[in-house]
Write a structure and sequence with these properties.
Blueprint (H helix, E strand, L loop, with lengths): L9 E5 L5 E3 L2 E3 L8 E8 L3 E9 L1
Antiparallel strand pairs: 1-4, 2-3, 4-5
Length: about 55
Amino acid sequence: MKFRPPHDRVLVKRIDAQEKSVSAVIIPETAEQKLHAWIVQLILGLTLAITWLVTR
């Protein structure tokens, strides 16, 4: 499936965080502060096929 973001937009694919366990205590993904995503396509007047890992 091809998708082209309109105008000067970015198409981002979110990476689902996994639950981690520390000594049998499960830490849910909501406890993490970082957001991880792949930038799939960046449109700035022309199409650039890129994949960047974004950590926020």
